[in-house]
Amino acid sequence: MKTTQKKKNNKRRAEYDFNKAERGKFYRSLDKGYIVRVHQGDGTIVVNHYTLAEGTVLLAPDVREYFSDSETVNDALRSLIQLREKVPPRKYGRQSSSSQQVADKGK
């Protein structure tokens, strides 16, 4: 019974009107850093500047679903590094002249 009473009284205050809100309007990229201003009770303002520590990497939300922590990300990247060292590099967009000559002779 208490839950039904809470639902009836769960009206937002007028100052919490989000009808004209825009999603992401004030979003800033974390890699650029951000500033937090804290207004103290005595009237002073404390300003804190936050930036990401050197070497910090942000993962996209879809990638974050697969990697729960730093250890799993590092393990996956190490395995990619090992694969890269085993596979010879390819030169994309360039064909050797001998393959073009063979193809031309076949026509």
Please characterize this protein's 3D structure.
This protein has 107 residues and is an alpha+beta fold. The protein is 36% helix and 11% strand. Strands 1-2 form a two-stranded antiparallel sheet. Strand 1 (34-39) and strand 2 form a beta hairpin. The model has no long low-confidence stretch (mean pLDDT 76).
Low-pLDDT residue intervals, each spanning 5 or more residues? none
End-to-end separation: 85 Å
Helicity range of the residues? 25-40%
SS elements, strand count: 2
Lateral arrangement of strands in the main beta sheet: 1-2
Derived structural class: alpha+beta
Number of alpha- plus pi-helical segments:
4
Mean pLDDT equals 76
Let me know the largest β-sheet. 2 strands, antiparallel
Percent of residues in beta strands: 5-15%
Over the alpha carbons, how many angstroms does the gyration radius reach? Answer: 28 Å
What is the overall shape?
elongated
Task: Give, in order, the helices and strands.
Answer: HEEHHH
Question: Would you spell out the secondary-structure blueprint of this structure?
Answer:
Layout: H1 2-8, E1 34-39, E2 45-50, H2 61-64, H3 70-86, H4 97-106
